[in-house]
Amino acid sequence: MKKTLPNQAANTMLSNTFEIFHVKDEVKADKTLYHYHDFYEINCTLDGESIFYLDGKEYHLKPGSILFIHYNDLHRLVRQTTAKLERTYIFVTAEYLKKHTSSQSPLEQCFKAFGQPHSQVLDSDVNELRHYLKRFDEPPTQDFGADLLYHQAFIELMVFFNRLAIRQAKNVLPIETANSVLIQDLMIYVSNNLANDLSLDTVAQTFFHSKYYLSREFKRQTGFTFHQYVLKKRLLYSKQLLRKNKLATEVYLACGFRSYTHFLRSFKQEFDMTPKEFIKKESTFIQFEHH
Question: Name one Pfam family in it (predicted).
Answer without folding.
Answer: AraC_binding
